[in-house]
Design brief:
The protein is α+β, with helices and mostly antiparallel strands and 280 residues long. It has seven helices and seven strands. Strands 1, 2, 3, 4 and 5 form a five-stranded antiparallel sheet that branches. A hairpin with a 7-residue loop joins strand 2 and strand 3. The protein starts with a helix and ends in a 26-residue tail after the last strand.
């Protein structure tokens, strides 16, 4: 199918195109309402060295080296089922992630909370920030680390207003629009082809019946064909050794009513027909 044929079909059934566009718009609005906007709240926390490492009056930011491994361990521990169930119960639309910030060289974690409401995202972020120090303390206590060597956490940034994120909603609306337009175009052309085929069927059947009536044999019987075999005769006036020539065959006779063929004339020994007068 060429593009010109496609456009002509859409032009012939323009009313179906209009209905399809309206249905596509309704489908897009439905997708927008079914897939709500997500709100995201984010915070950045930094692992701080212990007091024994910094020393009295020392600067903790000068001793951040070697804490990247501890940051990875804490990020993995925050995804434990016990902690995740407490922060984001099963069946709810609340989500949170804790990952190490790979864009920096320091032991920094990025905590991101997502919910369908702005207040829900902020509440989830606060709950995650409250759980992070406790999890870090339990990890160090489980290996018997002295209290003066415990690593701490410091909040660097924290959102106070959740930001809307429309990626999921926009993706659903685009998908609904593409599906609606595809169904409109191909459905309209399919309907146009069916309508044209139905219009051509009576003409085709009429032409076939006419051709069949013309091709039927007539009821009149075929006339028999009578042929007369070629007879060889000799010429009486010629010498006996003269070459013999055949008489031309009689024309094929066609008759609608068969007749008995007349008896052929007989010749005598001299080759002269019996009905011809003889000379003295």
């Amino acid at each position: 199918m060429y593009l010109s044929d496609l456009l002509r079909g859409l032009g012939r059934r323009w009313y179906f195109v209009v209905l399809g566009l309206l249905a596509t718009a309704a489908l897009s609005v439905g997708a927008m309402r079914l897939v709500p906007v997500d709100y995201v709240a984010q915070s950045s926390v930094l692992l701080l060295p212990s007091s024994s490492t910094v020393g009295t009056g020392g600067n903790p930011y000068l001793a951040l080296g070697g804490l990247q491994g501890a940051a990875d361990v804490l990020a993995r521990a925050m995804t434990d089922d016990t902690i995740s169930t407490h922060i984001a119960p099963q069946g709810s639309k609340v989500k949170y992630t804790v990952t190490r910030d790979t864009t920096t060289n320091g032991p920094m974690l990025i905590i991101m909370a997502t919910d369908v409401t702005s207040d829900g995202a902020l509440s989830t972020l606060n709950a995650t920030l409250a759980q992070a120090p406790n999890v870090l303390r339990q990890l160090q206590s489980s290996v018997g680390a002295p209290s003066n060597t415990l690593i701490g956490l410091g909040t660097i940034t924290q959102d106070t207003i959740a930001q809307p994120e429309i990626k999921s909603q926009l993706r659903a609306v685009i998908l609904a629009g593409v599906v609606g337009l595809a169904l409109t175009v191909f459905g309209t052309n399919l309907l146009d082809a069916l309508v044209i085929r139905r219009k051509r069927e009576p003409r085709t059947s009429e032409a076939v019946s006419t051709a069949r009536s013309d091709a039927e044999p007539s009821a009149e019987p075929m006339a028999p064909v009578v042929t007369t075999p070629t007879r060889w005769h000799t010429i009486a006036a010629g010498p006996q050794d003269a070459p013999r020539e055949p008489f031309p065959a009689r024309a094929t006779l066609r008759s609608t009513s068969p007749e008995r063929s007349r008896p052929s004339s007989t010749t005598d020994e001299a080759g002269i027909p019996a009905s011809a007068p003889r000379g003295d």
